[in-house]
Amino acid sequence: MKKILLAQFFVAFFTCAFSQQGLKYSQTLTFFGTAGQGVTYTVPAGKTWKIESGHCNTLESNTKGYLRVNDFEIGLWLRGNGYIVEPNFPIWLKAGDVLSVAEDYAPSPRDYFLSILEFDIQ
């Protein structure tokens, strides 16, 4: 009986300790655009974003599209020499972070799509 109670205590403790307390789902955001056009998205005060997925149209060889957060390259779509690299999702952003999609090596602009969950911080 003590083992069962002890096991239940640890399950309850770790569930509370590692849960996402203080976050409440607000809305789902979807952003479409053309990479490299200077469009930015800022996480509002009192919110946090979880980028669930995204795609940048890198159909031609040796093309690169990437996510930038606060002018730092964090996620990458790359096609070249027969391989494709995709960003590792999810990506969490805090209030005030500035997100954009940029490109390199592309002869023409690349379209992108991002799916983001927005949470209220409580």
Descriptive tags:
1 helix, 122 residues, five-stranded antiparallel β-sheet, mainly beta, Jelly Rolls
Description:
- The chain has 122 residues and is mainly β.
- The chain has one domain: Sandwich (Jelly Rolls).
- Helices cover 13% and strands 53% of the residues.
- It is built from one helix and nine strands, in the order αβββββββββ.
- It has a five-stranded antiparallel beta sheet, with no helix packed on it. It has a four-stranded antiparallel beta sheet with strand order 1-9-3-7, with no helix packed on it.
- A hairpin with a 2-residue loop joins strand 5 and strand 6 (83-85).
- The longest helix is centred in the first third of the chain and has 16 residues, at 2-17.
- The protein is elongated, with a radius of gyration of 19 Å.
- 17% of the residues are buried.
- The model has no long low-confidence stretch (mean pLDDT 80).
Describe this structure in a few short sentences.
By secondary structure, this protein is mostly beta strands. The chain has one domain: Jelly Rolls (Sandwich), CATH 2.60.120. 13% of the residues lie in helices and 53% in strands.
Query: What overall form do the CA principal axes indicate?
Result: elongated
Q: What name does the CATH topology carry?
A: Jelly Rolls
H/E series:
HEEEEEEEEE
What level of helicity do the residues show?
A: 10-25%
**Uncertain spans:** none
Number of contiguous helices = 1
Taking Cα atoms only, what radius of gyration do you get, to the nearest Å? Answer: 19 Å
| Count of DSSP strands | 9
Q: What is the count of distinct domains?
A: 1
- For the record, the CATH class is Mainly Beta
Q: Bin the strand percentage.
A: over 45%
Question: Kindly state the mean pLDDT as a whole number?
Answer: 80
Profile the largest sheet: 5 strands, antiparallel
Structural class: mainly beta
CATH architectural name: Sandwich
- The end-to-end distance, rounded to whole angstroms, is 38 Å
Strand order of the largest sheet: 2-8-4-5-6
